[in-house]
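Hey,

The postdoc asked me to send both predictions to you directly instead of through the lab channel. I've kept everything plain text so nothing gets mangled by the mail client. Protein one:
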Amino acid sequence: MNDRPRAARDRQVILVVDDAPEILECVHGLFAAEADVLFATSGQEAMELAYIHPPDLILMDIVMPGMDGYETCRRFREQASSADLPLIFLTALGAEEDEAKGLALGAIDFIHKPFNPEILQAKVRNHLLAKVQQDIYKSQALRDQLTGLPNRRHFDDTLIKEWERGVRGCTELAFLMIDVDRFKAYNDHLGHLEGDRCLAQVAAAMEAALPRRIDFLARYGGEEFAAILPATSLLGALRVGETLRAAVEALEIPAPFLPAGRLTVSVGAASLVPTLRDQVETLAVRADKGLYNAKRDGRNRVGVEDIGFRIQPGPLAPREAIASPEPPDQPLILLVDDDARMRLLMEARLATMGTRIATFPEAGSASTLLSRQTPDLILSDVVMPGMDGFEFCRQCKLDSQLTGVPFVLLTAVSRNLRERALGAGADDYLSKMEMEQVFRMRVRTHLELGLNRASETVPAGAQVLLLTRATLVHQVIATQMEAAGIGLRTASDWAAVLEALAGAGADTLVLDAAMLTDLPPQWFDRLRDMPAGLNLPILALASPQEDEFLLKIEHELQDRSAKPLEAREVRHRLLLMLRLAQARRGATLAR
């Protein structure tokens, strides 16, 4: 992710945010020949799309359903990754106070509808040209002249941006601290000019050895380098650290006055899941402790903060020798997405689930695998070249060998996804920006459905048990269950849930996260000790403020639905839980 300046790229990107189709069509016609034009019809969709495809300029309406343009602009300005993004309001609001408010929020221009196409083109082109010049200037200002790598300032800015991404997606973020061993002695013997030449060689070797485009390597200061590895676990960070260490050793830069006889580096590795409570500096501190351990243990190795977890110099053992041996019946997930960055991020999320992963950039090539092998779960992007995700889903569901394989559509935006996904026969739909724990829950659920080839229908007489004290929550659930012909019982405290399960039992438990403040100790242990609770699927209902409670019990949950509750979404989630309950009963009987 050591980005080229924008001037070196092919085309700039304009994001148009407006709920009027005629405006989207008009702007596309004006700029499609000279830039990539992306569309969003709401503020939330714009933020999601800008996260996946960072634009060079945003043209945005103010009056939109849900989050208006003012609030969207404010949120863009709050995030380090979009704080300086040029944004122009394109709106029918004509009062001076409207314009003043927009400019005060950080917009660079305010264009009134109906607009003159030639004036709009001229203004947009001027702002895009200024963006190119700004990108070139920033690239020069943020580049280390000696090594050509990003400098410390660029590194610090990027770390904050990746930290924000990690917070939004609950994905791991790794940090490597790299130091050239005994570099002062090298300079003392050969002089600073030779030392500079040596640092440039080391930088080039490590940059070439980085395994992914999204990884970011920079000169941290003096003879120190640092790397940011998005969506990377500690084991993954150790592997990359070892790759960089080996790349420098392979240069065989002679240094007979040093104990190793050649130039080497030591690496400290750290990884964590960023949260709003943590400080960004935590990663650097942990990596620095790992570097200290590597130096103390003899240099030319990778170390971590935990003294008991280090690896020796030399090539890593094969993956199978480090991880637990993969069982022969390890589940297979097919992942189809034309965005290489998103494939890497999705693979990183799936890598912790003990599955095999087959990835393809489009549906046509994925079909070659499906003709030879049946996966246990299919995850497919919606927007792809050639056959889109909806049509790919329809084709799979028509294949008798694939009918029982869960098909989940992935998207960066949410517009009309539920209706179109279910209409195409998909089992589920999932935002690529979904929280990490929710992503894991839903993938695990569908893997289980796929492995058991679960029925797509809910059995008659199904029963749902709801734990809540909120009248509104009860009303929404009750209405949806009545419409689906499913029985519902309600418990107002944790003890009442166990009593209900000891009596008539239930097929699914729905718990309101507001109740988690009163969760008794070892309650889930007591639940799983009961015959009716052993394999009971659990759906949690949580607002964004309550999501942190779910982290503590994530391993007990199969899904989460957001509050305030959207009726059809809740119904869909509950029907999936009831299908899972039926699949678990079938698996138990089979054993």
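Protein two:
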Amino acid sequence: MAGRRIQPSLTGVVPWPPEAVDHYVAKGYWQGRSLGSYLVGRSAATPHAIAVVSGDTRLTYQELMARADGAALRLRDLGLMPDDRIVLQLGNRWEFIVVLLACLRAGVLPVMALPAHRKLEVSHLVQHSAARAIAVPESTADHDYPAMARAIADETDTVEHIISAGNTLPGSVDLAGLCQPADDPEDARRRLDADAPDSRSVALFLLSGGTTGMPKLIARTHDDYAYNARRSAELCRLDASTVYLAVLPLPHNFPLACPGILGTLLAGGRVVIAPTPRPEKVLGLIERERVTATAVVPAIAQTWMAYRRTHPEHDLGSLQMLQVGGARLADHIAGQISPTFGCQLQQAFGMAEGLLCFTRLDDNDDVICHTQGRPISPDDEVLVVDERGRPVPPGEPGLLLTRGPYTPRGYYRAERQNAEAFTADGWYRTGDIVRQRPDGNLIVDGRDKDQINRGGEKISAEEVENFAYQVDGVSMAAAVAMPDPRLGERVCLYVVPHPAATVCLDDIRSLMENAGVARFKLPERLVLADSLPRTNVGKIDKKALRADIEQRLG
């Protein structure tokens, strides 16, 4: 394992303009507090209330913060300093929350890796962030996370520590030991309070969906991300009586702070962690813990509805709100949510880069079932423009641009991508095609970028194509989204083989798996063709291919 330390520089973070900062502070959006300080205050106010439920583990706010502060001091004992990075790949378990809060308290910056990521993606995150540590779960039946972390550490010159669940990797830091309560909780709190991170500094790195390969890093500050979580919680009417079920992978922005686990904890509610979204497990958990709110992607909502219709025995009377986002929810499915579950549907549309849109809980059925909501902040700026950047009339489709108090002005260390994704005056080009109704609500029509949205997981078509070209016999390749009733979209790969060559889907999938690619990115259908359609400027016509696969699927 390497031992050379590289101190990452924040020069790669694009700042908000001073006049925007002054405005957000004056309006009270940015309150000048670290995220950790909010949670310390909540713990002091309701120390004995249950904060987190995960399996048989139940932590009060006092116990949660004692563990978080203990972990924060142990991170410092390892030599991790403010501004150092740790790639956090722990998934849906209570230790994820403890380590996240520990980082927020100590100023160590977590990089949110997904459980589905494999060596290719995690290596990229380590290298791009110059991470000094990696935190991983124990091995599963289909993946050895500690061995992956060890291999990455051996190949990089920055990683000094592997934090591993199960304590099975020699030389690693035991996750359970890291998450023990501080020996002296009051002293730990005072020490960390005295050295709290500046509110304008980076709190954590979220991941972009990615349209050109590996995910980009999105630097979210304490000020902007606290507002993200607080404002979301306010609009979702979260309070101390809220019981939020965390179903989606916790490192995603949606279950993390929209309002998610952070919004729930800031409101004094209870977070219940589900290790799986399977309805036979989740509906019983909703009944047992008297869950009031949860958030899912459309594919999960549809699976739950189908199960609920044949298993009506669970008492779901506590459920008040079901958030659905991450992908477009079909109108006819939206209309079935409330009758099936007896709760209010809230559609959510947004991105880790910032902008969030929610339908409101008191909106009429037309808005809730036929739109994806409107921006959460009075100072969210939205433009819908044509290909030349000119505003389109209300109700007409166009490209969505945005900026606001929780939408950063650029990706981290990504000058080339920033020139493409952001305008000179700070508007973020989201890549979404939307229509804005006269009432301000947005209808999402699709994506302008070459991206596939598989159940909320964003997949770069270019990345899939680059792997396809490594397979013998592939002359041309084009990956496109094909419709799927459960996941929304899956990956379909069109290939033109070399003359007399044989190309099989299994060959492409095997090559990608051997390269350590996350399994959700693997193509699920192969279409062999003599040629691929072209646009009038000679590019592969992805629109024509999407229409072709829709026709093939009937």
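Summary for protein two, as requested: Residues 1-8 have pLDDT under 50 and may be disordered.

Thanks,
C.
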